[in-house]
Design a protein that fits this description.
This protein is α/β, with parallel strands linked by helices. The radius of gyration is 23 Å and the shape is elongated. β10, α7 and β11 form a beta-alpha-beta unit.
């Protein structure tokens, strides 16, 4: 979609539809004024607008225009002047652009294109007085949105077409030409490193595991931030196979890995003066005669052993090796991102990512960043007492708790056993894996938490 900012003129073609907001009407209506089509959208009182509501409003503009088969929009930038919010013009244009592009996205790669084409917006023009910063905000927003939507494509792609090898190749393609160094460790390399967690989870599949490493060096020195993304390209549950109604979305269990890949690409394209590493352990968790079994004990890269009590709690096992590997970078912060537990959805619903860390300062940084970009996080406890719940009987740690309660917490506590040597945050993005009603986003993956990680890289 083309988005631009221009000074108002009288030469805008009639094929464009003007957008205006009216707080005195509830419904939307199309009108013709002076041979120009207008879409007037009802909104709440301007004085009651919040940043959270603004994210939704931006997407609603696109959704409404698509419903009316509109292809080209003109919007006076002043329509988004909600003085109470005090958002700088560049930040506002970035916010609007990102959400416009997110709302315009449709995953249609596997559909036959209709004769009339897809119902997508082709162009948006903002009107307003000359302001270079607004155009810069648009450019930043489009870079960020492209990577969010790239993440959504990867996550939505069916498991047969998004294997660990394909994910590794897609990471190479996405990162090419932007100053990102990429390295792929094969199963033999992982054996030499002692990554028994990754090898154990992957041993039931004919698809070989991959350990994807992306390195972006935006400055000559300084400790890097490390982002780790869970890359289970299909999760059948293994021997503890999932029920049939819980498996159809499990090609999205690599959403954390896709988010990390596209976050690194966005950071590189934005030319951030930061050093950032991306790590994605990529596996397929399948049942077969060679699968890991309940009761197996795996030795991880750290030397700690994992007692496998449930083969469907596999994501934490591969992340254990990735967390240990990240130590070699002497990171100033490690953030792992994973669709880890259904328990996080039970706890929070589908409107916030579960946040775990021992550092209260990081809690506040992440909460503020989430509010700024529209990817909300909520802290959950990581108290030492929970360690008792994941102690193994025959191994050092068990991959599920002794109790069926607090699964998101015990999953995070498991990861913490491998993250005690550096500042660390765990994001359980299972609640935000797919879009829900009222968000004005296409069904399927939503690219969480690319926006949040970019903002964290800027702040840390």
């Amino acid at each position: 979609m083309k988005i631009s900012y221009i000074i108002p003129t009288n030469t805008i073609d009639k094929e464009y539809t003007f957008i205006a907001f009216d707080e005195n009407q509830k419904n939307n209506r199309l009108t013709i004024e002076n041979n120009t089509q207008k879409l007037i959208m009802g909104i709440e009182k301007r004085s009651e607008m919040t940043r959270r509501k603004l994210f939704i409003l931006a997407r609603k503009v696109i959704a409404t225009a698509k419903q009316h088969k509109i292809k080209k929009l003109v919007i006076p930038f002043s329509e988004f002047d909600f003085s109470k919010l005090k958002i700088q013009p560049q930040d506002l244009s970035e916010l609007l652009t990102t959400n416009f592009e997110m709302a315009n996205f449709e995953f249609n790669q596997y559909k036959t294109k209709p004769e009339e084409g897809w119902d997508l917006i082709e162009e948006i023009i903002f009107l307003g007085p000359k302001n270079i910063k607004i155009q810069k905000g648009i450019e930043r927003g489009q870079i960020i949105a492209k990577e969010i939507n790239g993440c959504r494509i990867s996550s939505n792609t069916p498991g047969k077409d998004m294997t660990p090898s394909v994910l590794a190749d897609s990471a190479k393609d996405a990162a090419k030409g932007f100053g990102i160094k990429i390295k792929i460790l094969e199963a033999e390399d992982m054996e030499k490193l002692g990554m028994g967690g990754i090898l154990g989870v992957s041993q039931g599949s004919i698809e070989k595991p991959k350990f994807i490493i992306l390195e972006y060096r935006g400055k000559a020195s300084g400790k890097p931030i490390v982002f780790i993304g869970k890359g289970v390209t299909f999760d059948s549950g293994g021997i503890n196979i999932k029920p049939s109604d819980g498996m159809s979305d499990m090609h999205m269990d690599m959403s954390g890995g896709a988010a990390v890949i596209h976050t690194l690409c966005a950071i590189a394209k934005l030319k951030m003066k930061k050093n950032v590493i991306g790590i994605i352990p990529a596996v397929e968790n399948m049942p077969s005669g060679t699968s890991m079994r309940p009761g197996d004990i795996l030795k991880t890269m750290s030397g700690k052993t994992i007692e496998v009590l449930n083969t469907d709690a596999e994501g934490r096992i591969i992340l254990a090796d990735a967390l240990t590997y990240s130590e070699r970078y002497e990171p100033k912060l490690v953030v792992d991102v994973a669709t880890l537990t259904g328990a996080a959805i039970v706890a929070l619903g589908q409107r916030a990512t579960a946040l775990f860390t021992k550092d209260e300062n990081l809690v506040q940084v992440f909460k503020r960043a989430g509010e700024e970009v529209g990817e909300y996080v909520w802290p959950m406890p990581l108290w030492d007492e929970y360690e008792e719940d994941i102690k193994g009987t025959f191994g050092d740690v068990a991959n599920i708790s002794k109790t069926r309660y607090g699964g998101a917490i015990t999953g995070a506590m498991f990861l913490y056993q491998f993250a005690k040597n550096f500042p660390w945050v765990h994001l359980d993005i299972a609640p935000r894996m797919t879009a829900i009603e009222g968000e004005y986003l296409a069904k399927g993956a939503i690219g969480t938490p690319v926006r949040l990680l970019i903002k964290i890289a800027e702040k840390i």
